[in-house]
Amino acid sequence: MDLKDLEKQVFQQELGNGFAVSEAFPALMRKVYVWMTMALAISGVTAYGVANSPNLLNLIYSNQILFYGIIIAELVLVWKISSSVWKPNRSLTTTTMMFIIFSMLNGATLAYIFVLFAPEAIVKTFFVTAGTFGATALYGYTTKKDLVSFGSFFMMGLIGLIIAGVVNMFLQSSMMDLIISIAGVVLFIGLTAWDSQQIKRQLAMMPDLSEGSQKVALSGALSLYLDFINLFIYLLRIFGRER
Q1: pLDDT (tens digit, 9 = 90+) per residue, 83-133?
Q2: 216-226 as b/e, with b when 16 or more CB fall inside 10 Å?
Q3: What gap in Å lies between CA 124 and CA 150, rounded to an integer?
Q4: Which of 64, 102, 136, 208 could potentially form a cystine with 192 if both were Cys, beta carbons 3.0 to 4.6 Å apart?
C-alpha cells in the first residue's frame, strides 16, 4: 500500500461509514483554510487602514447612503459567491475576485472596532476567537455525530438574533446587548461546528481539483470566514474594553 492509498484510507476512517473520499479531498480542505485566512488578513489590514485614515473613516461612517450601499454590496457578493457553485459559466478567478472584494468591503465596515476598543482588547479577543474557532471547527470535522439536524435550529437562532439586534437599536439596553452578545457567541460556535462538518461532507464527494470543486471549497471558506468574524465581534462586545 503506497502513501496515497494509506492517506485515503485514513480519511475514509475519519469521515465514517458511507463516505467515499477522493484524492482531491485533502487539497480542497487546505484551500478552504488558505482562502479563509487570506480573507481574514485582507479584512484586518483594510479595517486598520481605514481606522487610521480620518478622511476614509469620516466618508464611510458619516455618509449613510455610502455605508448602507457597502452593506448591500456585501450581501450581493455573499449571494453571488455562494451561487457560483451552481454557475458553471462563472469562473473560479471571478469568484475569487468577488471574495477578495467582499473581504475588503467587510474590513472597511469593521474599522470602527479600532476606534471603539483598545488595541490590547482587540488582540486578546482575536486570539481567544482563534482558539475557540479552531477547537470548534476541529470538533465539527472529527465528530461522528450527525449535526445536519441542527441546521434549521441555527437558522432560526440567526433570524432571532437579527431581530433582537434591530429591536435593541431602539431600546439601547446594555443588559439586552450583553444577552444578545452571549447568544451570538453560542450560536456561532454551533454554526462553526455545523459548517465544518457540512464542508467536509461536500468536499469528500468532489472527484478532482476542477474549478467546480474549488468553487465549493471557496464557498466553504466564505462560510467559515463569516463564522469567525461574527464570533470575534460578539466576543469583543463581551470582553473588549472600550476606549
Answers
A1: 988 888 889 999 999 999 999 999 999 999 999 999 999 999 999 999 999
A2: bbbbbbbbbbb
A3: 30
A4: 136
Cα separation, 98 vs 90, whole angstroms: 11
Q: Is the pTM of this model over 0.90?
A: no
User: Does residue 20 surpass a pLDDT of 60?
Assistant: no
- Check if the beta carbon of residue 19 is closer than 8 Å to that of residue 201: yes
**Given this model, what pLDDT does residue 1 score?**
41
Distance of CA 159 to the CA centre of its chain: 17
Tell me the three cell numbers of residue 172. Answer: 439601547
| Mean pLDDT estimate for the chain | 88
Contact indicator for 189, 3 with CB cutoff of 8 Å: no
184-213: b (≥16 Cβ within 10 Å) or e:
bbebbbbbbbbbbbbbbebbbebeeeeebb
Kindly report the length of the chain: 243
Does residue 231 have a pLDDT over 70?
A: yes
242: exposed, middle or buried (Cβ count in 10 Å: 0-12, 13-18, 19+):
exposed
Signed CA dihedral, 14, 19, 24, 27: sign only: negative
Rounded Cα distance between 139 and 121, Å, is 27
Three cell numbers at 175? 443588559
| pLDDT value for 220 | 95
Contact (CB, 8 A) for 229 and 48: no
